[in-house]
Amino acid sequence: MAEHRTGHSGHRFAPDFDDWFGRGFPGLPGWRPGTAPHSIPVEVTQRDGMYVLRAELPGMDPEDIHVGVEDNLITVSAEHDETDQDKEHSEFRYGSFRRTVRLPDAVPADRIDATYTDGLLTVRVPVPGGEPKAGQTVPVRRGGTRNEQRPA
Fold it and tell me: What average pLDDT is seen over the chain?
């Protein structure tokens, strides 16, 4: 079982709802309905007064990535369309991608920064949260090189 850290407010970091309904469903490893979105690999850290959520989304354009915020939930979703080109072999994933992450504090949607660089989405959220705004979206902007995006 995965280890979960606790945030400063004592709530456990529950990274997402995949813990209950995702790819680890007992008896059916790797199974998901054909219409279900693919899970997005993420990591969440807390340092220097910020929660930092990093999500792997290779081959996307920032315009195809949606970051939604509601209360203490951040939802990242994206679409990756398959090309019409004939392929002899492909292990790429196409279709819908989605991941919801629960933070221990309310998310101040108007103070979130989201950048996408070299296949990696980085969302920075100030800690502690302020008053949440219902149903906000966060613009995703293209960043510089990956080396410029690495936290110190």
Answer: 75
